[in-house]
């Protein structure tokens, strides 16, 4: 039995995410909430012929939506428009995410929380600090979903190598925006011999793939469908871990000891998922000279993003 809630189910990511979660055999019950539109999405999605029960909740029913929930996925917030950075979203999305975290702390403090709302580098620390204030923070149960970077890296590398994305899986570490995204291409058989201009272009495309979509959608939003797919993919991995399946490993942005000595206490790296959430955080392993350089550029930027999130709650 796994009850999953989607907070922001009426939005551009929330709708396709709700559909994909309805299709997940590990989800038994789906609770869809938004300030508008969630009951309609729920009615629509509930007709899909899979086993899970679906209920929609209106703006004033957040507490009911969270009752008995084991996994909460948060895609709520405003999307990026052309010319906007993920940082520009901060002011709007920070308050939305904080308020949702307050409700989760009150109603379902033991839930596993998956944060999709951008900027993830800042919104995850906001949720952590909010739960800490309420005295219910468990670092094993909070995740920033960086899976879209992993999905893009596999897809783009497969395109260059004329291979199947199933064979070109790339570990992506760091954070979830621009220069904080560090793909470890040297650690995959298909990626280790990519060099020079091809390498630079590939890394840039993995880091800024979101801009490609924002531009192509021409003011009509950002990466909603691929993000929903990535969110559902990570949720499925977590559910497998929660069910006790061994060896479920994927990158995710969590409270991490890897760079704590540099004052960076959240970081994305390979994590093994288990019955309690985070089971084990893996070190980065051997990096190429290019990756060391990318990491060097990542860390100060990431620290700034994390500190901004913490300052918002303080």
From TrEMBL:
Does Cell inner membrane count among this protein's keywords? no
- What Gene Ontology terms describe where this protein resides (cellular component)? mitochondrion
The source's domain of life comes to Eukaryota
Report the EC code(s) recorded for this entry: 1.1.1.37
Question: Which residues does the record give as substrate binding sites?
Answer: 80, 86, 118, 152
Q: Listed GO molecular functions?
A: L-malate dehydrogenase (NAD+) activity
A GO BP entry is: malate metabolic process
Q: Which UniProt keywords apply?
A: NAD, Oxidoreductase, Tricarboxylic acid cycle
As its record notes, the protein acts as a catalyst of: (S)-malate + NAD(+) = oxaloacetate + NADH + H(+)
Which part of the chain is the Lactate/malate dehydrogenase N-terminal domain? 2-144
Which positions fall inside the Lactate/malate dehydrogenase C-terminal domain? 146-313
Positions with a binding annotation for NAD(+): 8-14, 34, 93, 116-118, 227
Question: Which residues does the entry assign to the active site, renumbered to this chain?
Answer: 176 (proton acceptor)
Q: Which PROSITE patterns would you find in this protein's record? A: MDH
Subunit note: Homodimer.
* Family stated for the protein in its record: Belongs to the LDH/MDH superfamily. MDH type 1 family.
In its UniProt entry, what is this protein called? Malate dehydrogenase
Q: From what organism does this protein derive? A: Pholiota conissans
């Amino acid at each position: 039995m796994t009850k999953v809630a989607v907070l922001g189910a009426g939005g551009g990511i929330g709708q396709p995410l709700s559909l994909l979660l309805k299709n997940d055999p590990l989800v038994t019950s789906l609770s869809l909430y938004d300030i508008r539109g969630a009951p309609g999405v729920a009615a629509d999605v509930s007709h899909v012929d899979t086993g899970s029960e679906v209920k929609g909740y209106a703006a004033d029913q957040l507490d009911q939506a969270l009752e008995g929930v084991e996994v909460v996925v948060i895609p709520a917030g405003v999307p990026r428009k052309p010319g906007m950075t993920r940082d520009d979203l901060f002011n709007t999305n920070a308050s939305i995410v904080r308020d949702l975290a307050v409700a989760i702390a009150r109603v379902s403090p033991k839930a596993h929380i998956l944060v999709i709302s951008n900027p993830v580098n800042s919104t995850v620390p906001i949720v952590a600090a909010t739960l800490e204030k309420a005295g219910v923070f468990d670092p094993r149960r909070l995740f920033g979903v960086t899976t879209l970077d992993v999905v893009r890296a596999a897809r783009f590398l497969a395109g260059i190598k004329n291979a199947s994305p199933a064979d070109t899986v790339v570990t992506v570490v760091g954070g979830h925006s621009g220069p904080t995204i560090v793909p470890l291409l040297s650690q995959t058989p298909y990626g280790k011999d990519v060099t020079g201009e091809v390498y630079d272009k590939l890394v840039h495309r993995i880091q800024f793939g979101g801009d490609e979509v924002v531009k192509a959608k021409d003011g009509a939003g950002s990466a909603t469908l691929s993000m929903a797919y990535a969110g559902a993919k990570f949720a499925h991995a977590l559910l497998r871990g929660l069910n006790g399946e061994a060896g479920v490993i994927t990158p995710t942005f969590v409270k991490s000891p890897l760079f704590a000595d540099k004052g960076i206490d959240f970081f994305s790296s390979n994590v093994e998922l288990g019955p309690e959430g985070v089971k084990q955080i893996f070190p980065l392993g051997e990096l190429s000279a290019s990756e060391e350089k990318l990491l060097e550029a990542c860390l100060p930027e990431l620290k700034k993003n994390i500190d901004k999130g913490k300052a918002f709650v303080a």
